[in-house]
Design a protein that fits this description.
The complex is a heterodimer of chains A (488) and B (454). Chain A has 488 residues and is an all-alpha fold. Chain A has 18 helices and two strands. Chain A is flat and about 90 Å long. The mean pLDDT of chain A is 85. In chain B, strands 2-1-3 form a three-stranded antiparallel beta sheet. The N terminus of chain B is likely disordered. The chains are: A mainly alpha (488), B mainly alpha (454). Chains A and B meet through helix 7, helix 8, helix 10, helix 11 and helix 12 of A and helix 2, helix 11, helix 12, helix 13 and helix 14 of B.
């Protein structure tokens, strides 16, 4: 039975359980509801919950684990002569899966019976042709051992599914019966249900932890298998990035990418920090209420625009504009529309509201008494801002700038579209360079298979990016917290 | 310190012989000038920010509006029975056997007839050259019509056929005679014909519904490309995000805000959430690739996977805003409910949650808007490079079969070499921004109307 129908059966069982549990509770007190510990619905929910939740947990775990168990068991039966490393074994296993699925389709379409499939032999039948007829195209002829493995996989899956159906239904029935027997006027059904709901809430809250664990594990495992194929020192200290040279001469040094990332981020911050900071100071210290109500949301619109828009803006507006001034017709510094400057300028525009609204909040949090004290000594407004407010707000502003920097480093679309694809160690800001994020995209969207170092390097790059932004965020939070204590 | 000020005292007072309230001294003038300068810097910074905004918006509008108009050539095409249905049996299977090549001569003849009628001389020896003015998809349009209406064979039917992208570009001012000098697809001679046809009213621009509802087309037919299918892909993704992120986000916030004890586990969860909010979106793409596609073997490029990745990405946003709105419900509400005998759980679900709902919905809509515009994680799970040329067959297929999403489609167009696709990309951005604006306006209205001040 398929997982979907099992789920439907469990749902139906839970619905029946709700009705039966509720009526059993009421009849146990001869219809006098005042005798019940909890409201009648809670008794119903209790039965439904115990029938549903354990069974669904078993079902979910089974659906995830069974394919992995079966494929690891089947893969031991593939003769070692057929493959040399884990990557080839993976390819063979995906062939096996495809053949097994094809056989399933053949049975579903009535081309063969289940018995015929288990008796199938590569010497008597052309399996590829048979599967081709039912619409499953195979890349090559089916090897006898692959067919055998596929048949074994099918047999194991069938028996596994049967077991799953039995176990899940037993779990649902057991939960149902247990909760139903419990149901009695004195039973504290509300506490039981609320305990269940609380467990659900805790599970939802821990998804945040699971996500982090998922990110870290997927990065670590793939990074380790990358370093198994490619020396870590060459990756960390290599000065050239040229993954195209397949078969021997490939260079996957991260330094040019890091340089591009940092260079573009510096340009972006040089644009965003002065503009954002001055805007924040003006909005919080000088602007009238109406100006503020008008200008602040307008600036924040810049933050709500998707990055793909900025990317296209860089590619088709800013890039050609810069080429007009600095290109071959102007100063001759720029080769094409894509450059560090293009991406950096546009990213700077994107970051303006980020810097300004964070600094605005921080400047507003500086106590008015400090300003009044400064005015009382005869300082002008700008002197107060420069010598009292900004020093007091400095830690927060530094935090905001660090957060903006972490944004700039992790930004993808603007650099993919505006910065170019060539990895370069160069000082000219009008030269095309590339970044860590842009290379993650290009390495993982190509055709190369996931087991090759060309694809796996993206995970090592992702690891670097994750650690870099995480470090910046933690540092920003630390600085803000430390200095805030000083002024409290 | 005090010594220094004593020494400085007389010096500072010394040149004040001509001091007057009416006449500012040098130092005050300098300080006032500094003040004015500082203020001007602030105004300039805001002005620069606003100018960037204006430039951005106006370039979006100027470059994108063109995509909503398309040049059409209106032709009376005679659906010759001798070409389309030689047997005359109107057998649909036989009619289907006629490929688009069989329809091209009909279009050619119709075009020639239209030119003759308008008194335009045909400068081309080959009919193939003449057909270059029309989209290469025009014959397919004709074929689709005939298969749907086989009884019209033999009639003369008026068709509004797409002009080729070069002709369209010429009418919009993107293509000039100079730029066609080395173009294989069209020659300046064609443009002379187009000018005359335009005067005769055969070629005209009109509203391009196909761009909004249509599917993506191959690289050589930008005039046919539309954003409709990827819009549907985005819709399915948003449904997944809404169905997953809202319940999980609300449940997590309720736990953290109302039930969580003060211990290291709660701290860990909170630190995690604030860190996840700052993790670059592309890292979520890597997570989706590794966990959902490599590990769980979910289908690549499917809106389901895209939705799950975007769910993980928007969860922190939703949790943070939900917690803020739960926090804004005053404790007196909770105390009153507890006082009349409600359990903690009943208090939260019957009283606190309904009061916090407008704030939660506002936060959710903003989170959804953020997810709708996100591109980078979608690139990694393969929603780019797939040509969204077919509408999904049903709802399940809509979630599971490969599709694109609006931002991914825009990126795909921006990558293509033909400049006609830039116009499509900007047009797509207009549609995307209209959606985002609508969502944000709904959020603002919700906040204004329902948010209570306690």
């Amino acid at each position: 039975m398929s997982a979907f129908w099992l789920l439907m059966i469990i749902l139906a069982l839970a619905a029946v359980g709700f009705i039966l549990g509720r009526s059993r509770a009421i009849s146990s007190v001869q219809g006098d509801r005042r005798q019940l510990h909890s409201l009648p619905n809670y008794y119903g929910f209790n039965v439904a919950m115990l029938a549903f939740v354990p069974a669904v947990l078993v079902l979910g775990a089974w659906v995830i684990i069974q394919p992995m168990m079966i494929s690891s068991q089947v893969s031991t039966h593939i003769p070692a002569a057929l493959y040399e490393d884990a990557g080839q074994l993976n390819l063979i296993m995906s062939d096996v899966k495809r053949v097994a699925e094809g056989l399933d389709v053949a049975i579903a379409q009535g081309v063969m019976t289940a018995d015929e499939v288990s008796q199938l032999d590569t010497e008597t039948t052309d399996v590829r042709a048979v599967l081709g007829n039912v619409g499953v195209a195979l890349g090559s002829d089916v090897d006898p051992s692959v067919l055998k493995a596929a048949q074994e996989m099918r047999a194991k899956t069938t028996s596994g599914n049967l077991f799953m159906t039995i176990v899940v239904l037993i779990a649902a029935a057991a939960g149902f019966v247990m909760a139903f027997m419990q149901t009695h006027g004195d039973f504290r059904a509300r506490n039981a249900v609320e305990g269940g709901v609380k467990a659900l809430l805790i599970a939802a809250a821990s998804i945040a932890i699971l996500t982090t664990i998922g990110i870290v594990l997927s990065l670590i495992f793939n990074t380790i298998s990358f370093f198994g194929m490619f020396p870590a020192s060459d990756f960390l200290f290599g000065l050239t990035w040229s993954p195209e040279g397949r078969g021997g001469s490939e260079h996957l040094g991260i330094l040019p990418l890091l340089w591009g990332t940092i260079y573009i981020s510096i340009v972006a911050l040089l644009v965003a920090v002065p503009i954002g900071l001055f805007a924040a100071v003006y909005l919080s210290e000088y602007a009238s209420r109406t100006t503020r109500a008008f200008a602040k949301p307008l600036l924040e619109v810049l933050a709500g625009i998707p990055t793909i828009v900025y990317g296209l803006f860089a590619l088709t507006v800013v890039g050609p504009l810069l080429v007009n001034f600095f290109g071959a017709d102007g100063l001759g510094w720029m080769q094409g529309a894509r450059s560090v400057m293009t991406a950096g300028l546009v990213m700077g525009i994107m970051l303006i509201p980020f810097v300004s609204s964070l600094s605005d909040d921080i400047i507003n949090a500086v106590p008015q008494a400090m300003r009044d004290g400064s005015y009382g000594l005869g300082a002008t407004q700008s002197e107060t801002v420069k010598q009292v407010v900004l020093p007091a707000a400095l830690p927060g502003i530094v935090g905001a700038i660090l957060l903006a920097a972490s944004r700039a480093i992790g930004e993808t679309m603007i650099v993919v579209m505006g910065a170019g694809a060539a990895a370069r160690l160069d000082l000219n800001p009008f030269e095309a360079m590339t970044t860590v994020t842009a290379k993650i995209v290009s390495q993982l969207t190509g055709d190369s298979d996931f087991a090759s170092p060309e694809a796996l390097v993206a995970f090592a790059l992702g690891m670097t990016l994750f650690l870099l932004t995480l470090g910046l965020n933690v540092l920003a939070l630390y600085i803000v917290r430390k200095y805030r204590e000083q002024y409290e | 310190m005090s010594d220094a000020s004593l020494q400085n005292g007389p010096e500072m007072g010394a040149p004040t012989t001509k001091s007057s309230i009416l006449q500012l001294d040098q130092r005050t003038k300098k300080r006032n000038a500094a003040e004015a300068r500082f203020r001007a810097y602030g105004i300039a910074a805001i002005a620069v920010g606003l100018v960037f905004l204006v430039v951005l918006i106006s370039s979006i509008i100027f470059k994108g509006v063109g995509a909503f108009q398309q040049s059409f050539i209106t032709l009376d095409v005679e659906l010759l029975e001798s070409k389309l249905d030689k047997s005359g049996e109107r057998d649909i299977e036989k009619i289907k056997k006629v490929t688009t090549f069989g329809y091209s001569p009909l279009i050619e003849n119709a075009l020639k007839a239209a030119m003759e009628e308008a008194g335009i001389e045909n400068p081309f020896a080959k009919g193939k050259d003449l057909r270059k003015m029309l989209s290469s998809g025009a014959a397919a349009d004709l074929r689709r019509f005939v298969i749907a209406n086989p009884d019209r064979i033999g009639d003369t039917v008026q068709f509004r056929l797409l002009a080729s992208s070069r002709v369209d570009g010429y009418l919009k001012g993107r293509v000039t005679r100079e730029s066609l000098a080395r173009d294989k697809n069209l020659t300046p001679v064609h443009l002379d014909v187009v000018d005359q046809l335009k005067d005769a009213g055969v070629v005209a621009k009109s509203f391009n519904l196909g761009f909004i509802t249509g599917a993506d087309a191959s690289e050589s037919r930008p005039e046919q490309a539309g954003i409709g299918v990827s819009m549907l892909g985005s819709l399915y993704m948003m449904l997944v995000v809404l169905a997953c992120a809202l319940p999980i986000g609300v449940a997590a916030s309720i736990y953290l805000e109302e039930f969580a004890p003060q211990n290291w586990i709660t701290d860990l969860i909170e630190v995690n959430i604030s860190n996840l909010a700052a993790v670059p979106s592309i890292v979520f793409g890597i997570l989706g690739l590794a966990v959902f596609i490599q590990f769980a073997h979910l289908p690549q490029s499917a809106p389901l996977v895209g939705g799950l990745v975007l769910t993980l990405m928007t969860l922190p946003t939703i949790i943070i805003s939900t917690r803020a709105s739960l926090k804004s419900v005053p404790p007196s509400i909770r105390e009153a409910a507890l006082g009349v005998g409600a359990s903690k759980m009943q208090t939260v679900f019957h009283h606190v949650l309904p009061l916090a709902m407008p704030g939660i919905l506002t936060g959710t809509i903003i989170g959804l808007a953020q997810a709708l515009g996100e591109t980078a994680p979608l690139l990694l799970i393969g929603m780019v490079g797939y040509i969204a040329s077919n509408y999904p067959g049903g709802i399940i297929e809509g979630f599971m079969s490969p599709n694109s999403a609006m931002p991914a489609q825009i990126y795909e167009w921006a990558k293509r070499a033909d400049p006609a696709y830039y116009e499509r990309a900007w047009g797509g951005i207009i549609i995307l921004l209209v959606f985002l604006m609508t969502m944000n306006i709904i959020a603002i209205i919700l906040r204004r109307r329902f948010e209570r001040r306690w």
